[in-house]
């Protein structure tokens, strides 16, 4: 399971070639976003001059994406993984910024 951050959702929505290619290479695994990223995507549509059109685009994107609530454990895992990736790569390249999280039921 891959948890995407808001920036990468935007890159995918806007068909950024590098991010789209990376996502396709992981297509066999499900993608998800946190409820926070969902709220950020909706906020971006609200402040847009083309609100209705952008809302439809976001909703279409989300048909293939699971939305996950976050809890303390997930926030801790996220912060640890982000820190590890940042320490290894310094500038957080796009490919490294797609976080892999496995959610226990």
Q: Considering DSSP H and I runs of 4 or more, what fraction of the residues is helical?
A: 55-70%
Any idea what the radius of gyration is? 14 Å
Shape category: globular
Q: SSE order in H/E notation?
A: EHHEHHEHE
Looking across the biggest beta sheet, what order are the strands in? 3-2-1-4
- Mean of residue pLDDT? 80
Low-pLDDT parts are 93-105
The total of beta strands comes to 4
Euclidean distance between termini CA atoms: 13 Å
Q: What does the largest sheet look like?
A: 4 strands, mixed
Bin the strand percentage: 5-15%
Q: What is the SS-derived class? A: alpha/beta
Q: Helix count?
A: 5
Give structural notes.
The longest helix has 18 residues, at 72-89. Helix 3 (35-46) runs antiparallel to helix 4. The protein has 105 residues and is an alpha/beta fold. The chain is built from 5 helices and 4 strands, in the order E-H-H-E-H-H-E-H-E.
Q: What labels describe this entry?
A:
105 residues; disordered C terminus; 4-stranded mixed sheet
Topology, pairings included?
Elements: E1 2-4, H1 6-13, H2 17-25, E2 31-34, H3 35-46, H4 51-62, E3 66-68, H5 72-89, E4 99-100
Parallel strand pairs: 1-2, 2-3
Antiparallel strand pairs: 1-4
Helix pairs in contact: 3-4
Short characterization:
By secondary structure, the chain is an alpha/beta fold. Helices cover 56% and strands 11% of the residues. The chain contains 5 helices and 4 strands.
């Amino acid at each position: 399971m891959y948890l995407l951050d808001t920036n990468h959702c935007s890159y995918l929505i806007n068909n950024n070639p590098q991010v789209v290619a990376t996502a396709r290479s992981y297509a066999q695994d499900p993608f998800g976003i946190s409820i926070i990223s969902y709220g950020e995507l909706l906020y971006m549509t609200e402040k847009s001059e083309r609100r209705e059109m952008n809302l439809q685009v976001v909703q279409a994107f989300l048909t293939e994406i699971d939305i996950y609530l976050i809890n303390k454990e997930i926030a801790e895992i996220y912060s640890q993984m982000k820190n590890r990736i940042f320490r290894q790569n310094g500038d957080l390249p796009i490919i490294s910024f797609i976080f892999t999280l496995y959610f226990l039921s």
